[in-house]
Amino acid sequence: MLAEFSDRLSRQINRGTEVVLAALMVALVLDVWIGVVDRYFFHWQLPWPEVLARYLMIWAAMLAVSCGIARREHIGLTVLLMSLPQGGRRGLLVLIDVITFALFFYVLWFGIGFAESGAKRQAMILGATLQPFYSAIPAAALLACVQVVLVMIRDMGRQLDTVTPNEGSGA
């Protein structure tokens, strides 16, 4: 019951994150396109497309981490895990989840101060503070923490129980 709730909530959060990611990627493509058109055709010398593209890409890359976690597509130790018996796999997978949570919690904790420091810095080209851009770090870390907890509850270390050694070695 709790595993089903965690799975459902993880999927909903992931779906919302993917919608935001799609919007960021559309904005990134349009921004880069404007920069190319400006540089090679109109010569307006717009100063902002390159800077905006950088921050859109950072937001997209950071948010995509939680999607990888939700789908268990992040870097794993599949070869090592598949060589262990199922009980050993479960324990190691839970340990990996706990360590992953600790890492993202650490990033969240220090990312908050990093984002706050962005309020004091000005992006001259964009005419705004850097806080919204620096906020990608703690926002993505918080989302990753939530997804790690949800998939840990959902899987309870069992996600590789049905994978045979031949299937697992290709991942």
Automatic annotation (TrEMBL):
The keyword Disulfide bond does not apply. Keywords: Cell inner membrane, Cell membrane, Membrane, Transmembrane, Transmembrane helix, Transport. Residues 32-156 form the Tripartite ATP-independent periplasmic transporters DctQ component domain. The chain crosses the membrane at residues 20-40, 52-70, 91-112, 132-153. It is found in: Cell inner membrane. GO terms for molecular function: transmembrane transporter activity. InterPro entries: DctQ, TRAP_DctQ. It comes from the Bacteria. One of its GO terms (biological process) is C4-dicarboxylate transport. It is a multi-pass membrane protein. GO terms for cellular component: plasma membrane. Part of the tripartite ATP-independent periplasmic (TRAP) transport system. The complex comprises the extracytoplasmic solute receptor protein and the two transmembrane proteins. Belongs to the TRAP transporter small permease family. This is TRAP transporter small permease protein. It comes from Tritonibacter horizontis.
